[in-house]
Every structure is written in C-alpha cells, then in structure tokens.
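Task: fold both queries, return tokens.
Query 1:
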Amino acid sequence: MILSRSADYGLRALIHLAQAAREVPVPLERIAEVQRVPAALLSKILQALVRAGFLRSHRGYGGGFVMVAEPTRLSLEAVIEAIDGPLVVFECLDDETFCELCQGCRLQEKLREVERAMRGILRSTTLADCLPLRTCDAVAPAIVSEAKGTPTPLPTAT
C-alpha cells in the first residue's frame, strides 16, 4: 500500500485543523501555505472531508474550515477511505482475476495477514495519536489565533 498524496495532504490538513480553535474557521489558503500543499488540490480534499462529516466549511469573508469530528474518535482508516475510497493493500486479495496464480497461493495467506495488521493499525490509530507532543518552528503547523487570524506557535511541552 502506498499512501496517496491526497491522503497525505488530507491527514496533514486535519492535524492542522485539530490544533486550531474550533470556533474560528481556518482559511484554505492558510492551511495550504503552512502545510506547503497546492490550494486547488487541497480544496478538493477538504470538500471530501466535509462530505464525510469530519469538517464543516464556512463561505465568504472570514470563511474556511473547522474540525467537527473528535480527533480521539477519528481513525486514520476512516480519513484515508473518505479521500481515496476503499482501502486496497494488495490487489490480488481484492480481485482474484488480478493474478493467474491465486489458486492455492501460499503467499496470499501471508499477504492477508499483512493486510489485516495494516488495517488494524490504521483503524486503531486516531488523529489525536498523530498530534505533535511539542512543536518545532520548522516542522509543526501554526494554529490560528482567535483574535487576529495570525499564526501562533503551539506551546512546547515542558
């Protein structure tokens, strides 16, 4: 399984939004800038996450996106599937016509174990598990301050 670029961007955007104040919409352009993601592609990804019920979008002046899903209840599997559709780890397990050797293939047994383990990890890992413990100015996204909409670094752990 290769994580698609869209799923990567979507997860990064959700991590960014999970750190922002829920009452204040974060503009698409701000998320794209901080996460270094093309705004046009990010817009499509965020709309898929709105349709899945993870985000709410606000139009117009002061508009943007807010997180509505609880990060502790939002699995990585659910996010990836909302963006990319059903998760397929190995094509031969999803489509028996993919491989002519499927009948009696012992490799398939091992691939099925790997797939179950990967799905289990993605299902049991929540967005909250991916939030930074502390920030680094060069890496961690900034959150939007409620007062002025300016980036405010996250507090560092002590």
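Query 1 returned. Query 2:
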Amino acid sequence: MSSESKRIVVSCSFEDRAQPYLEALRLIGVPDEDIFLVTPPIFDIEAFGPLLERLRGTGLPILAGLAVIDGLRHAEFLASEVVGVKIPETIFERLRQAKDEAGEALALTMEIADWLRSRVDGLQVTAWHGSPGTASRLLAALAARGTQEVKHA
C-alpha cells in the first residue's frame, strides 16, 4: 500500500468534553470527512434527543452506541455498575412485567435501534457485559428489519 493510499479515520467518543478534541483534530489538519462521533450506548431516547441536536451541530457523522440488553438482571447491572449508564424506569418495568423476559429485552433494544436509526448515521452494537448470543440475535433482527447494512465485526 503506497503512502498516498493510507488514510487515518478518527473516532471521538462523545462526552460533554469532546469539543476540545475535535478542535485539536481540526487544528492538526485532520479533515472532517475523516472524523466521526461515537456515543456511549443509548438507553434513554428522551434524554438523548436534546444531546443529539448538539451533536448534529458539529456537522460530523454520528454513530450511536446500542447495547444489547439480556434481561432485567443485566439492565440492573448496567445501571448500577457501569459508570454513566442511565436506564429509564420504564425499561425496568417492562422487563419486570414480561412473561418472556429475553423476548421483551430484545424488543426494547429493537425499539431503541429503530428510533436511533432514523436519526443517526449508524449504530455501534455492543454486548456490553452481556451475552454474545444476544448480540447475534439483535444483529439478525436488525438485518431482518431491513437495515441497509449490518456488518459483523
């Protein structure tokens, strides 16, 4: 591969403090087409809406984090043990009342995915302390719903 064909693509994990990093990347000459933003996994779409508007203001592509939820116990673990994770009470309630907890967890994750897909440039799917099998089921469900492109990493 020649040096002319090498390309660096920079991902900035978005936090409220990401702006100085973006400015530094631009200052050293990294073009905007080589930069994209990656959010932490989104569970609370109502809270994410206003933040999404700020992210769009950067003009950069946005990849939203989507964490697969295995079930109630997994959601409780994420909310209590993973820094920065905020899961709305409505998710816990739906999982508590579900007859098929795994099915409801997948349905909840798909609802979040559908909301995000219509508003961001892509999704970063993670099993985040959960089951890889659940992540595989989510990717299959996304593909079945007509996701334009689902890549397995």
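Both queries returned. Flag for query 2: The radius of gyration is 17 Å.
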